[in-house]
């Protein structure tokens, strides 16, 4: 069987697959009320979010969750500072501009790097931004920002913070409550470990107040204020309806989140085990990259994500390498960042696969064999 080791969709556990493989249940059936309600509760644990934060589960993609964050926190005439580390930072910049928000972009000096905290602090000082926005892990470069430090800068400047965690949430350390972040969003097909189809977002009380204070409401289908009573009803295990949820996906979400929180590793449990596991898998992968002479797109090892590796093709290789790795039974991804697209490839090592020794071993061996 071919292994899918791209930065999403990823391999999923047999229990997660089985939970979604059902005749679609009604959105008000007892099993959906329970799975939906429980998933909302579990999201606070996976996000390490406060009890008074509000999780949202919508049918949709990560891109939808990004739009939801942008439109609920910001409106025309506002401004926002964007920490730009690649493709998905560019995407949220476009969304902000479409919403009529002025964007102050703080760019990394080069691809594979991050802007300094001083540059970000300076941008916040010199503008009247309402929000600071960053991509936790940019999937196009494999670069991870220091989300804790960025969230701290936002608190110090008293601006809202939004983190796109689509390639990070449940794989990279993120402590929403302790760090004081306002929105952390993802999608089901990345480190959460489900099929594609759900947009997942947790909003802080400050983020909910920001929505309440808007003069120009977001698009109705992604409005916090439309969805909040629905999420509250589900959490109380009460039937309600605004727009039909993806019911088989909800069944699998509860199973997937349970699996994440049941993780154990070397005396650690729950999210601590999960973060440590991704760190261990990534450092093992990087050891192999070094031994194979592969160069990371991230400029320094501490910038390299634990959920995926972005690697330059070595001398004498090009995009055909991806096909040769596939011949070895492992699917990896080509480049995504437009400026270096043809020069590198990407390997996902997150979620369920990070718990499966043979997935990691087969992937590292397939890449080694394809290079020879
Ligand atoms: C995958 C990804 C997205 C987009 O998610 P979709 O589900 O494809 O819309 C956004 N941001 C990051 C960081 C991602 O990795």
Produce a short descriptive summary.
It is built from 13 helices and 16 strands. The longest helix has 22 residues, at 270-291.
What would your notes on this structure say?
With 372 residues, the chain is of the alpha/beta class. The chain has 13 helices and 16 strands. The strands form five sheets. A seven-stranded mixed sheet has the order 2-10-9-8-5-3-4, with helices on both faces. The longest helix is centred in the last third of the chain and has 22 residues, at 270-291. It is globular and about 60 Å long. The two termini are 22 Å apart. Bound molecules: pyridoxal-5'-phosphate.
Write the layout of secondary structure elements.
Layout: E1 3-4, H1 14-20, H2 30-47, E2 54-59, H3 62-73, E3 79-84, H4 87-98, E4 102-107, H5 117-126, E5 131-135, E6 137-138, E7 143-144, H6 147-157, E8 160-164, H7 176-179, E9 183-187, E10 198-203, H8 205-212, H9 224-235, H10 247-261, E11 264-265, E12 268-269, H11 270-291, E13 308-312, H12 320-327, E14 330-331, E15 333-334, E16 344-348, H13 357-371
Parallel strand pairs: 1-14, 3-4, 3-5, 5-8, 8-9
Antiparallel strand pairs: 2-10, 6-7, 9-10, 11-12, 13-16, 15-16
Helix pairs in contact: 1-10, 2-9, 2-10, 5-6, 12-13
The structure holds pyridoxal-5'-phosphate.
Pyridoxal-5'-phosphate (PLP) binds next to helix 3.
């Amino acid at each position: 069987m071919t292994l899918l080791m791209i930065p999403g969709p990823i391999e999923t556990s047999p229990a997660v697959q089985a939970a979604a493989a059902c005749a679609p249940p009604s959105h008000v059936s007892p099993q959906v009320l329970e799975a939906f309600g429980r998933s909302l509760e579990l999201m606070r644990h996976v996000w390490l979010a406060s009890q008074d934060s509000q999780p949202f589960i919508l049918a949709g993609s990560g891109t939808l969750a990004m739009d939801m964050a942008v439109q609920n926190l910001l409106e025309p005439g506002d401004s926002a500072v964007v920490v730009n580390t690649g493709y998905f930072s560019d995407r949220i910049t476009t969304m902000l501009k479409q919403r009529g928000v002025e964007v102050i972009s703080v760019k990394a000096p080069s691809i594979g790097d991050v802007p300094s905290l001083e540059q970000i602090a300076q941008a916040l000082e010199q503008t009247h931004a309402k929000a600071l926005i960053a991509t936790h892990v940019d999937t196009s470069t494999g670069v991870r920002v220091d989300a804790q430090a960025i969230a701290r800068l936002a608190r110090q400047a008293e601006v809202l913070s939004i983190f796109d965690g689509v390639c990070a949430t449940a794989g990279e350390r993120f402590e929403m409550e302790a760090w004081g972040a306002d929105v952390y969003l993802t999608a089901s097909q990345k480190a959460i470990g489900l099929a594609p189809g759900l947009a997942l977002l947790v909003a802080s009380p400050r983020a909910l107040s920001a929505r309440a204070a808007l003069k120009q409401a977001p698009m109705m289908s992604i409005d916090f204020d439309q969805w909040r009573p629905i999420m509250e009803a589900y959490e109380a295990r009460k039937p309600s309806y605004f727009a039909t949820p993806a019911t088989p996906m909800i069944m699998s979400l509860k199973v997937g989140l349970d699996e994440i929180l049941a993780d154990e590793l070397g005396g650690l449990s729950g999210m601590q085990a999960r973060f440590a596991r991704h760190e261990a898998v990534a450092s093992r992968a990087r050891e192999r990259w070094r031994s194979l002479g592969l160069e990371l797109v991230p400029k320094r090892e501490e910038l390299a994500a634990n959920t995926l590796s972005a690697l330059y093709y070595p001398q004498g290789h090009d995009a055909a390498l991806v096909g040769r790795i596939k011949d070895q039974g492992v699917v990896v991804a080509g480049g995504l960042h437009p400026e270096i697209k043809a020069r590198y490839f990407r390997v996902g090592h997150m979620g369920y696969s990070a718990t499966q020794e043979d997935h990691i071993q087969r992937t590292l061996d397939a890449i080694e064999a394809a290079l020879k």
